[in-house]
C-alpha cells in the first residue's frame, strides 16, 4: 500500500483508505475516491499537484492531499 503521491504516471492504484478529518474525507469521496475505486495517475512530476483519472474524470490534487489517499497497485481490492 502506498500513498497516491507515490504512484507513477500511467499506473493504476485502487483506493484502500482515506486519511484525514471528516470534511476532507467526505470531499474526496464526493469526487469519487471511495474504497475500491480505480485511480490512474495521469501526471506526477514529483513536485506540485498530481493529476489523476478517477471514475472517468480528471482531477488535480495537491501533493499534500494525495498523501492522504492510500492505494494498492495491481488488481482491485
Can you walk me through this structure?
The chain is globular. The protein has 2 helices and 6 strands. The protein has 77 residues and is α+β, with helices and mostly antiparallel strands. The termini are close together. Helix content is 17%, strand content 39%. The model has no long low-confidence stretch (mean pLDDT 95).
List its salient traits:
6-stranded antiparallel β-sheet, alpha+beta, 6 strands, 2 helices, SH3 type barrels, 39% strand
Give a nutshell description of this structure:
The chain is an alpha+beta fold and 77 residues long. 17% of the residues lie in helices and 39% in strands.
Tell me how many strands there are.
Answer: 6
CATH class: Mainly Beta
Query: What is the 3D shape?
Result: globular
Largest sheet: 6 strands, antiparallel
Topology (SSEs and partners):
Elements: E1 2-3, E2 12-18, H1 22-30, E3 38-43, E4 50-54, E5 57-61, H2 63-66, E6 69-73
Antiparallel strand pairs: 1-6, 2-3, 2-6, 3-4, 4-5
